[in-house]
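Morning. Coffee machine broken again, so started the prediction first thing and wrote up yesterday's gels while waiting. Chain of 471 residues, entered below exactly as on the submission form.
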Amino acid sequence: MTNNSIKAILNDIRFWILFFFLIRLTGITNAPLENSHDWRQCLTNMISRNLLETDNNPLFPRVDNGGRHETGIIASEFPVFNYLVYLISTVFGYDHWYGRLINLIFSSLAGWFFYKSLKFYFSERISFAATILLMVSIWFSFSRKSMPDVFSMALMIIAFYNLILYQIHQKGYRLILFGSLSCLALLSKIPVLYSFAFLPFFIFQKDNKPVTKISILAVSAISLSVMFWWYFVWGKFLLSEYGYQLYFPESLSTGFAKFREHLSMAAERFYFSAFQGFLAFMFFLTGIYFTFKKKILAAASILISGFVIFMVFIIKTGDVFALHSYYIIPFVPVMSIIAAIGLDELPEKLYSLALVLISFESVANQQHDFFNPGSELFKLELEREINQSVPKGIKIALAGSTGPQYLYFAHRKGWGLSVEQTLNSQYMNEVYDKGYRYLVVINRELEANPGYTLIASGKYTRTYQLIRKEN
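Came back before lunch.
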């Protein structure tokens, strides 16, 4: 192979998309035991597994950790991502890692369409660098988790690529693809709604015919209407009927008050979490400078409109954005474009070196995500051990955490309890009154006797007969 052919391969973005795809296959079949957002993956997997084992009606997503909400039906995102896992499971049987692979496939496809979209507006160097930056950003680790965050933004990127082609070729099926994919993206995760801030950039191009503008507006309105119905009509019904919700939006005033208390953490989401390193953020700042100095209209438009709308979303979440690193995910494509503009100011050799250093820093800060800690592997034994003392299908109160992870691996419907709740007789009487008769204690979380009759003791759990205690 000649030097020219090697150079051609290294300059082909498809090589790097495949390269990062293969790297991220490491540990792809791992159960969700890594320390980074394992709880959210378990919740996502619960909904997917219940579609297979309980009810495949996507209008009623349900989790195992329903607790006092006995059905486990929850007002959450529409289970687009979960339904893909369900469809695979109907053929191969359920497994933990299907969501990981689905996410990885769609995020890789989005990398290709991201690159192709950018080439309509930017140079080859900017398009190439932006795609590399996106792939090594926080997307690198979260694109292989069983979570809909990267998945939803990947759908939106592919949707906008089809919108670009619709404007160029006026093919109706491209508009339908834009509408369908953007609708699924919005249903999968509401934060990607900020992407619609870019629509005026497409709609009001001077070359667009009136019918093109009206068509884009109409299809976009349909997508937004479906999203609005799911989250604010049907979601409101689910909450009122079943009393359980995943998301807790705040008013702007309340949200801003909470957001203000965590300004430093919120800032960290931009200067470190987004690219999982500091080097790329330096080029993001440089890119902002050159975007306005050189009056790069396309970049300035998406930066300003995107940031303003994204800030509204951030404030509406209150402290959630600051406390969860992955809420920056939808904005990372914009940051990648701007950072690529900064990189484009470098001479060729420094440009390549900077991309290598950025990639090394970002991937090094995320490599731990490929491996499950040995201390967490015992959770894979919970289902077997609990089945020895509690009949299958019986719901359990599980002492160890209010999160979903223990119940997910126990493969049980139930009530996740903190240690404090478990040792509170009045609280536990409420648990009993809801029909719970078995208390399973995770040995690692609680060594003390909770005050009930022990009926089984295993390596990882203890099972007690739950009774009502009189005050």
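Strands lie at 396-399, 414-417, 438-442, 453-457, 461-465. Going to sketch it on the whiteboard this afternoon.
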